[in-house]
Amino acid sequence: MDADGHVHNAAHLRYLEESRIDLFWTRGFGGSNVVAQMDIDYLTPLRYRAEPVRIETWVTRIGTSSFALQQEIRDAEVVYSTAVCTMVAFDPETQKSRPLPEDQRLLLKDLEG
């Protein structure tokens, strides 16, 4: 929290990360994927409060070895921040990118918005 009672900007990134992990986990999206780029726009200060916020996530691009997600932290009335997250399929053995397998492509297709 900052001095004005706002949720700190780094917390927005944590919220978005937790949402991505939950989304992939619940859909059985396996394999190793890493964040290659994260762009975030803070639109409206988010104050600490008892009510939860919603995080919406959808796929905007599917490439050979990467994909892009659009995310919003919002409630019914207000969008607090928007983000674009580029993720790359990653091979832990070679420490390099790898092509997205077909099962992951199909799951990502289901999330296109």
Write the layout of secondary structure elements.
Elements: H1 9-26, E1 32-42, E2 54-62, E3 66-74, E4 79-91, E5 96-97, H2 102-110
Antiparallel strand pairs: 1-4, 2-3, 3-4, 4-5
Structure description:
The protein is α+β, with helices and mostly antiparallel strands and 113 residues long. The chain has one domain: Hotdog Thioesterase (Thiol Ester Dehydrase, Chain A, Roll). Helices cover 24% and strands 39% of the residues. It has helices at 9-26, 102-110, and strands at 32-42, 54-62, 66-74, 79-91, 96-97. Strands 1, 2, 3, 4 and 5 form a five-stranded antiparallel sheet that branches. A hairpin with a 4-residue loop joins strand 4 and strand 5. The longest helix has 18 residues, at 9-26. The chain is elongated and about 45 Å long. The N and C termini lie far apart (32 Å). The model has no long low-confidence stretch (mean pLDDT 94). This is Acyl-CoA thioesterase. InterPro entries: 4-hydroxybenzoyl-CoA_TE, HotDog_dom_sf. It comes from Nocardia seriolae.
Brief digest:
The chain is of the alpha+beta class and 113 residues long.
Through-space gap between termini: 32 Å
The total strand number stands at 5
Helix content: 10-25%
CATH class equals Alpha Beta
Q: What's the shape?
A: elongated
The CATH architecture term is Roll
| Total domain modules | 1
Radius of gyration: 15 Å
From the 3D structure, determine the CATH topology. Answer: Thiol Ester Dehydrase, Chain A
Main structural class: alpha+beta
Number of helices: 2
